[in-house]
Amino acid sequence: AQKITQTQPGMFVQEKEAVTLDCTYDTSDQSYGLFWYKQPSSGEMIFLIYQGSYDEQNATEGRYSLNFQKARKSANLVISASQLGDSAMYFCAMRGPNFGNEKLTFGTGTRLTIIP
Amino acid sequence: SQTIHQWPATLVQPVGSPLSLECTVEGTSNPNLYWYRQAAGRGLQLLFYSVGIGQISSEVPQNLSASRPQDRQFILSSKKLLLSDSGFYLCAWEDEGEMNTEAFFGQGTRLTVV
Predict the structure, then answer these.
(1) Residues of A whose CB is below 8 A from B103
(2) Number of Cβ pairs closer than 8 Å across A and B?
(3) Nearest-CA distance from B5 to chain A in Å?
(4) Per-residue 3-state assignment (H helix, E strand, C coil) for A2-71
(5) Does the pLDDT of residue A101 top 80, yes or no?
(6) For residue A16, is pLDDT > 90?
């Protein structure tokens, strides 16, 4: 079974600084996908970025990048030049191939607070 | 374009009362559907997952059940609510068969059992 671990329950970061949110995963599959979602206080889930296990390049989407280290089974989210609007819960998730691990499984999340 | 509707947005129910939360998806066919629950300030717990009509896997044994009577309709139910059923319930859909597809979430239902 696959498992996602986010070890940082909460983080406080000064505005305009870069922040790294940790995510490690455990799977026996060779093919899998990794996702990051943002959840503001309103509760909606906003998709941020995706990384495939066979992607050679780290994924980037605007200010978001994913530091993918396959051998260490880590997929950390990096937010550059943080903004007050980045304050939210952040969830790492993964999906395996079909036949058992295809469900999207989430970690426990990290609450990020940006300090002005 | 695809949209997902989830209702109601908030619900206050007494212990022992029944529950029915509904989720519908428009603009796609044969989606995979999910029900998640989020306790206050906590992560997302996968409750039910469905790949087709009548095909539902239960991830956590409890007093909740799910049904998929139509391709794009997913219902979460309980016959008798417990205090521990309080939380934020999220429905989500994704395209079937694609590993890199993101899941799209509804606005959520905040359930308080009193």
Answers:
(1) 35, 45, 47, 104
(2) 56
(3) 12
(4) CEEECCCCEEEEECCCCEEECCEEECCCCCCEEEEEEECCCCCCEEEEEEECCCCCCCEECCEEEEEECC
(5) no
(6) yes
